[in-house]
């Protein structure tokens, strides 16, 4: 089969690799019909390469048709259409029963001290082959896959794999009061959905984004927008009665613009041998923190900052005096995809499309064009906001 593989920093290639096979009685094999490039994939493309090996199959936003199931998979049959959550969870451990599927005790990567295994996301999360391929082996298929109907196009359902529940969780974690104001930093795919979800739930939403095309997309959905500027905190306070927004979602993460020290650290790490680079990631402050620090500055006193963007460093300088003095709450973490499925499935199937899932994809390309699509997405070229690959 064809698969998108990592070959080095900023080096992606499409290779012929062996088809996956059933390995456990709870496995399924899914023929992928659509799979997307996520902003998190760009962290592997740029920063987290030391945790990858040449030939690793990328991707964690797939959907498709069940081809084969193991003997203990009774909820699926060949021919079923499914969306595959990016985190692999068992459904029966204490964490899963508590709605914390991203911390699944069955699939935790204990040798790395990390949470549930993830598709296509490096040795930090289990080195599980990803979904940017023609076929995918799905562990714990008796719980994880989301069975969907056959009439609506893939783009109605595809984002249930990651970015839509990630945005939903980010807004829920932001704990916006009734009638309150939510600021969303970053209007990439997760930020677009977080802003639309905030509007759907009845909040005033202000999106912050330096790229004009992304601001324009958000404006189509009734979102107020601002460019990212050094006076952003003052602008937000002036728009909110002098206090600042009640809640903030950071949908950017470790590769924010406007963080020269973080950018220098990331570039320096990229020049190290893998063993030293992994040590640097695990012990140093390698994240670009301009967005997070701005969020802490701009949110009102007693407000909440919710982190949906991924951070990777372990020694990042944080303004703890400000955080303590302002009595802020911070919430964060990988999305617990299956926790939110029942909330979101009716919304993506609603003919009115209240979250605008059909207005996100900007580029649909064949799997063979994945290397060029990665480069365009990372450089934000050609109005690239969301790429869907068709294997």
Automatic annotation (TrEMBL):
**Species for this entry:** Arthrobacter crusticola
Presence of keyword Secreted = no
Q: What Gene Ontology molecular-function terms does this entry list?
A: oxidoreductase activity; zinc ion binding
Family assignment from sequence similarity: Belongs to the zinc-containing alcohol dehydrogenase family.
Outline the extent of the Alcohol dehydrogenase-like C-terminal domain: 189-255
List, alphabetically, the InterPro entries matched.
Answer: ADH-like_C, ADH-like_N, ADH_Zn_CS, GroES-like_sf, NAD(P)-bd_dom_sf
Q: What is this protein called?
A: Glutathione-dependent formaldehyde dehydrogenase
Does the UniProt entry include the keyword S-adenosyl-L-methionine?
no
Positions in coiled-coil regions = none
Keywords of this entry: Metal-binding, Oxidoreductase, Zinc
């Amino acid at each position: 089969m064809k698969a998108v593989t990592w070959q080095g920093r900023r080096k992606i290639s499409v290779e012929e690799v062996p088809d996956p096979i059933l390995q456990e009685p709870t496995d399924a094999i899914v023929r992928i019909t659509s799979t997307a490039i996520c902003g998190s994939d760009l962290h592997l493309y740029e920063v987290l390469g030391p945790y990858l090996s040449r030939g690793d199959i990328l991707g964690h936003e797939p959907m498709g048709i069940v081809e084969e199931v193991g003997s203990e998979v009774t909820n699926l049959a060949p021919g079923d259409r499914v969306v595959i959550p990016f985190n692999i969870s068992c459904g029966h451990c204490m964490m899963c029963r508590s709605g914390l599927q991203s911390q699944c005790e069955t699939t935790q990567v204990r040798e790395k001290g990390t949470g549930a295994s993830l598709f296509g996301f490096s040795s930090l999360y289990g080195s599980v082959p990803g979904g940017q391929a023609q076929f995918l082996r799905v562990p714990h298929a008796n719980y994880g896959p989301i069975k969907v109907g056959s009439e609506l196009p893939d783009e109605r359902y595809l984002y249930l794999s990651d970015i839509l529940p990630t945005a939903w969780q980010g807004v829920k974690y932001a704990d916006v009061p009734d009638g309150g104001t939510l600021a969303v930093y970053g209007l990439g795919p997760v930020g677009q959905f977080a802003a639309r979800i905030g509007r759907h739930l009845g909040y005033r939403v202000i999106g912050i984004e330096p790229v004009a095309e992304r601001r324009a997309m958000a404006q189509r959905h009734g979102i107020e927008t601002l460019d990212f500027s050094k006076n952003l905190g003052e602008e937000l306070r002036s728009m909110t009665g002098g206090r600042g927004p009640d809640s903030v979602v950071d949908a950017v993460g470790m590769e924010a613009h406007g963080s020269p020290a973080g950018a220098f650290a990331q570039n320096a790490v990229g020049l190290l041998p893998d063993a030293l680079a992994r040590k640097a990631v695990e012990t140093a402050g390698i994240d670009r923190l301009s967005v997070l620090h701005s969020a802490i500055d701009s949110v009102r006193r007693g407000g909440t900052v919710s982190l949906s963007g991924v951070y990777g460093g372990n020694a990042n300088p944080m303004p703890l005096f400000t955080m303590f003095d302002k009595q802020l709450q911070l919430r964060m973490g990988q999305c617990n995809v299956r926790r939110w499925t029942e909330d979101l499935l009716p919304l993506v199937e609603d003919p009115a499309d209240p979250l605008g899932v059909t207005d996100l994809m900007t580029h649909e390309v064949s799997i063979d064009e994945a290397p060029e699509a990665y480069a365009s997405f990372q450089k934000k070229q050609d109005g690239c906001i969301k790429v869907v690959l068709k294997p």
